[in-house]
Amino acid sequence: MEVQKMFQSLSAYVARRLYDGRYYEIDSETAKSALDGIASVVNGIVEIEIYKGNMFCLHVTGQREDIREQRFNNGGHAWNGLAAP
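Structure (tokenized):
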């Protein structure tokens, strides 16, 4: 859950920097790099629409893998969902 909060916070920060015309400054680049690290272990496709500073989620596809459920379904010791692709 903490990673999701961090992703949301960094995404909002980068969006503000983009709106302010500061997308390529060092702090924006650092935030984008952190977002790339978080997003690298996610699979799926999210279709969005952006209009006047608002983002609307249109459709989400992909395999949702809940690590906790998978762990306990496999006897409590398998952490397959944690391995990066």
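The beta strands are 45-51, 54-61. Residues 1-40 form one domain.
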